[in-house]
Write a structure and sequence with these properties.
This protein is an alpha/beta fold and about 400 residues long. Helices cover about 40% and strands about 20% of the residues. Helix 1 runs parallel beside helix 9, helix 4 packs across helix 7 and helix 6 crosses helix 7. The structure holds guanosine-5'-diphosphate and magnesium ion (MG). Guanosine-5'-diphosphate (GDP) binds next to helix 1 and helix 9.
Length: about 400
């Protein structure tokens, strides 16, 4: 399952974000929950369900569908607050960072209202730009440190044996989930020579680590606490300073309030939407609180929480959703369930690769596939598109 790390300093709203995003009224399957550690939870990305195109309702198995929107599970990791010097082991330091090894994408929760200082204490007018620079630098230094530890030995070995240095790095640091092409790209970006790694100086290693981190562990920014007074002014400053970054205005507090009210049956609310419907009579306080939130939704389009998850998975990681079926006419599986499973796969995944992802045996017996929309037969190397409904043919 796709894993997203929620990171940032203390008191910015990571746990609030985590709680709101992992709240579920419909549990999918106990199977997934048994693999969850204490700070892990199941959140969802959303995508329009193909069931809108057919007469019959769908019968989701590994995901859920609410009013034609498919909610597909992902794993979220709520990581303890990062403090300056963490890469040297300060605070929870390395343990914190090591928790992030397996996450291919990070959401940096930022207090854009400027009401917490760099240590997480209440403050006024704290500059959130500092937090972004500090955080990225800390993660880059952590990456560099991992490499530096083994650099000399690895570099010498590679030069003596004339082995492929990129491959050696990949194998040695497989725990970081880095691909060979990422290493190749990072070496190119850093302008260093992979045939003589013993000549790299510390700055070269840092530059390489920084570029590799950017490619293999991208960070998007949840500009949180947008409901507070100074936030809008700060958001503008942060966006101007970092025009290339994905920065999403958020209110984790409001998302949590909406999901809680929805769970209690007070309102009907669809995560990610720009409105909600009141279902029961409310107290004056509840009504006022909800109307304030409604104004926020109108102003920003949503609370931003669902958008963060969707952007991380679909825009940054470049994943698509595909729906394997057994019956290309009814879009159902062997048990007759319509559109049972939604799979998140990297863009560019081929029909055969999808078969292998479902089961290695299905991959081995693969002979072709049928696009259930067009009913056309496609070959092994056919690249799947987002929201494809596909039948795998096996011998
Ligand atoms: N105004 C406002 N406060 C928030 C928001 N998100 C979290 N908080 C508050 O910030 C404080 C710290 O939140 P928490 O989730 O524990 O932060 P963490 O230390 O990063 O996990 C709590 O008092 C939250 O209620 C938000 O979107 N808006
Ligand atoms: Mg927390």
């Amino acid at each position: 399952m796709v894993l997203i790390g929620l990171v940032g300093k203390t008191n910015v709203g990571k746990s609030t974000f985590f709680k709101a995003a992992t709240m579920t009224d419909v549990e999918i399957s106990n199977r997934i929950f048994t693999t969850i550690k204490p700070n892990e939870g199941i959140g969802y990305v959303t995508s329009p369900c193909p069931c809108r195109e057919i007469e019959k309702p769908c019968n989701p198995n590994n995901s859920k569908c609410i009013n034609g929107t498919r909610f597909i599970p992902i794993k979220l990791l709520d990581v303890a607050g990062l403090i300056p010097g963490a890469h040297e082991g300060k605070g929870l330091g390395n343990q914190f960072l090591d928790d992030l090894r397996e996450a291919p994408v990070l959401i940096h929760v930022l207090d854009v209202s400027g009401t917490t200082d760099s240590e997480g204490n209440p403050s006024k007018n704290h500059n959130p730009i500092e937090d972004i620079e500090f955080f990225e630098n800390e993660v880059n230094l952590w990456y560099a440190k991992i490499f530096q530890r083994e650099w000399n030995r690895m570099a010498k070995e590679s030069e003596i044996t004339k082995s492929d240095f990129e491959k050696q790095i990949m194998n040695r640091f497989s725990g970081l989930g880095i691909k060979k092409e990422d290493i190749h790209k990072a070496i190119e970006m850093s302008g260093v020579d992979p045939t003589s790694p013993t000549k790299w100086i510390d700055e070269d290693i840092f530059e390489f680590a920084k570029n590799l981190r950017k490619i293999s562990k991208p960070i998007i920014i949840a500009a949180n606490k947008m409901d507070l007074p100074e936030a809008e002014k700060n958001l503008k400053i942060v966006k101007e300073k970092f025009p290339e970054k994905i920065i999403i205005p958020c209110s984790a507090d409001y998302e949590l309030a909406l999901r809680t009210a929805s769970e209690k049956g007070l309102i009907s609310y669809m995560p990610g939407s720009d409105d909600f419907e009141v279902l029961k009579s409310l107290t004056k306080d509840q009504e006022d609180a909800l109307e304030t939130i409604r104004k926020f939704l109108k102003r920003f389009g949503s609370t931003g929480i669902q958008e963060c998850l969707n952007k991380a998975v679909f825009d940054v990681m470049n994943y698509i959703v595909v729906y394997p079926v057994e019956d290309e006419t009814h879009w159902s599986d062997k048990k007759g369930r319509v559109l049972p499973d939604a799979h998140l796969v990297p863009k560019g995944t081929t029909a055969r690769e999808l078969a292998y992802r479902i089961h290695s045996e299905i991959g081995e017996r693969f002979i072709g596939a049928i696009d259930a929309r067009t009913k056309r037969k496609v070959g092994a190397d056919h690249e799947l598109k987002d929201r494809d409904v596909i039948k795998i043919l096996t011998r």
